[in-house]
Amino acid sequence: MGLTALCPGTFDPATNGHLDIIERAARRFDAVVVGVLDNPAKRPLFTAEERVQILKEATAGLPNVQVAAFSGLLVDAARQVGADVVVKGLRAVTDFEAEIQMAQMNRALAGVETLFMTTSPEWSFLSSSLVKEVARFGGDVSALVPPGVPERLRERLGGGA
Fold it and tell me: Which domains does the chain have, with CATH numbers?
């Protein structure tokens, strides 16, 4: 049995930046579980089930990638899927400031290690929040997200997503 990585996130919606990290992790680990966070404290545009479906479609060509929803502590999800490491994408220093604290807490709670992977430069500006804002005002986000997402955004928000 090889190494398994957990790539957690809200993915509301999934972006090409998310896929960049998932695809690169899939080349380096034997198995990758994309963990879609179902957090009642957040108010996502898409349900956890819809976000799981979007990611399943987007990662269909990656045979060692599975997608599943989880809630609660990340360390519990990592243990449940048998992950050896958590992989988190970083776009900028501001991401690191928040992520390092969570990584250290996960290590303190359960010995779960976190591997930080920088997003490829062409996606370093991209966030789900920004995609939703552009789509909300009718902007074309089709070059920023996986196929199927613009249509889903248009259905949910209206506009020219």
Answer: 4-124 (3.40.50.620)
Q: The tokens of 145 are what? A: 């997200």
Active-site residue among 24, 51, 128, 152? Answer: 128
Is 91 a residue of the active site? yes
- 128 catalytic? Reply is yes
Catalytic pick among 18, 24, 51, 88 = 18
User: Which of the following is catalytic: 24, 51, 88, 91?
Assistant: 91
What's the burial of 74, exposed, middle or buried (CB within 10 Å: 0-12/13-18/19+)?
A: buried
Phi, psi of 145 (to 5 degrees): -135, 160
How far apart are alpha carbons 65 and 71 in whole angstroms?
A: 19
Residue by residue, pLDDT tens for the chain (161 residues) are: 599 999 999 999 999 999 999 999 999 999 999 999 998 788 999 999 999 999 999 999 999 999 999 999 999 999 999 999 999 999 988 889 899 999 999 999 999 999 999 999 999 999 999 999 999 999 999 999 999 999 999 999 975 55
Cα separation, 8 vs 86, in Å, equals 7
